[in-house]
Amino acid sequence: MEEYSESDSDYTSYWRDWFISSRGNEYFCEIDEDYLTDRFNLTGLNTEVQYYQYALDLVTDVFDLDCDDEMRETIEKSARHLYGLVHARYIVTTRGLAKMLEKYKKADFGKCPRVMCHSHPLLPMGLSDVANSKPVKLYCGRCEDMYNPKSSRHAAIDGAYFGTSFHNILFQVYPALIPAKSAERYIPRVYGFKVHAAAALVRWQNNKRDEMRRRLRKMEVESGFKDGEDSIDENEEDEVDEDEELALEGYQGAPAGGFVQGEAENVA
User: Fold this and answer.
1) Residues with Cβ within 8 Å of residue 229, at least 6 apart in sequence
2) How far is residue 129's CA from residue 167's CA, in Å, rounded to a whole number?
3) What does the sequence similarity comment in the record state about its family (predicted)?
4) pLDDT digits (tens, 9 = 90+) for 138-166
5) In which residue ranges of the chain is pLDDT below 70?
6) 219 within domain boundaries
7) Taking a C-beta distance cutoff of 8 angstroms, is the pair 159, 135 a contact?
8) How many domains does the chain have?
9) HSE on the CB side for 186, CA within 13 Å?
10) Does some domain include residue 35?
11) Cα radius of gyration (the chain)
C-alpha cells in the first residue's frame, strides 16, 4: 500500500510540474498535493470554474474522460483558472509563504525599475480579489509603489491569482524582510541649479512626510524609516508649518514649466 501511495504521489505531480515549468508561469509556486485534495480548501470554487470536477481531476492527474480536442482545451483552460484561484489561497498559508519567500529572495518576480531602489526585488500582487477584473502588478517594498511586469506573458496573468493581501502578509509574517524605506529623491536641476517650481514641490512633499513621521512618533508607531532620517524635532513644528505654506505658495505661483533661480542659495 505504501508503494502505491508513493507512485501515486509522483504521478499526481505531473500536471503541476508542467504548469509551473511553462513559460509565463514563473510567478506561480507549486501547490502541495495535500492542499489540493482537501475539499475544504476548495470551498466555493465549484461555482467559479466551468467543468469544475473535470478541471480538478486534470490538475490532480486523475482525468480519464474521453473527449474531443475542443472539449479538452476548454477543460485545460478551466484547470489553469482553478489552479490560479487555489494558488491565491495557498500562498497565504505557512507553506505557501515559505515557497514564495524563496522565489522573492531569488528575485524571480523581477527587480524594481526605480533607480533609487537599487534593484530591490519585487512581489506579485493583485488590485482585486475578483477574477478577470485586473491583471497582476508588481510591488516594491522599498518605495512602496506598483509596477507593470516587463513580459507580456506575465502582464496577462490575472491579479486575483495572487490577491490583494499576499505581499502585505509576507512582510507581516517575516518582519525582518521589511526593507529600509528609500528617502532618496531625484531633484531636477539646470546647470546645477534646482528648478524652482519642482524644488518647491519637493520641499512641500518632504515637509508633509516629516509631519507624518512626527505624528507616528507621538502615537509610538514604527514608521519604517531608518533611524536618523527624522531630521525635524517636535519643537520645530511652527517653523515647519510656515515653511510648508511658503513652499506651497512658491509651487502654486510658479509658471507651469518652472524657472531657474539665479542663485543656488535662494532655491536650496
Assistant:
1) 183
2) 13
3) Belongs to the casein kinase 2 subunit beta family.
4) 999 999 999 999 999 999 999 999 999 99
5) 1-13, 223-268
6) yes
7) yes
8) 3
9) 6
10) yes
11) 25
